[in-house]
Amino acid sequence: MRLVFITGGSSGIGQAMATVYLQQGWRVALVARRLDALTAWTADMSVQLALGPDRLQVYGADVQDVDSIIAAADQCIAQMGLPDVVIANAGISQGVDTAEREDLAVMRQVMDTNVLGMAATFHPFIRGMQARGSGSLVGIASVAGIRGLPGHAAYCASKAAVISYCESLRGELRASGVCVTTIAPGYVATPLTERNRYPMPFLMSAEAFAKQAVRCIARGTSYQVIPRPMAVVAKLLRILPNAVFDRVLKGQPRKHRHSDN
Fold this sequence. Notes:
This protein has 261 residues and is of the alpha/beta class. The protein has 8 helices and 9 strands. The protein has helices spanning 12-23, 35-48, 66-80, 102-132, 153-173, 206-219, 228-239, 242-249, and strands at 3-6, 27-32, 56-60, 85-88, 135-140, 178-185, 188-189, 204-205, 223-226.
């Protein structure tokens, strides 16, 4: 029975993807900082789907702490075996203002979680997957990584880094049989987006996103924006001249700072 390892599993996209995989008969290793929330959800899901104890395991770890996430990965391998799919989904979004000294620390936290945390999540599994000659590493990026948005400097920068990082890793691992997939969500209704103060076109549920994402992973897609209408917008954003892009954003609400109520 195939195994998937997912970080950021206590809510939102991570939990929705875990549900899809469980419904498809996979074993799931779910990781999050909030182990209490994760354990409660797991107990409920085990009852709903009549899961055996070998189908769903939870691990407490913080991807910002390299030793913590590596320990969780090693524990998963020891208890459940080497995963077929690893999904680095854990991430945070904090609005920043570079003019504010305290926001530099916030930016570091976002980069450590969203970028270094992804590399630390993949690291423990790469050698084993290379030796086996198969496996999928999935990085959850964002459309926000394509162009910078006001107030969103930390998040946009981190997701741009994720896109480039996964592209580099894909080239490094291609010959080994290990697949690297980058998935860039548009706006998904999760705790991460619920406080946004600006329009969110093509907003979709976490459940709808998860179904599409799991299909992309199964196909071995290298890069996919979800949903498809946002993929069209993403392509336009890539080629839009700076002068036009700046005019479009002029006067638009910015991402609220992390300290705003």
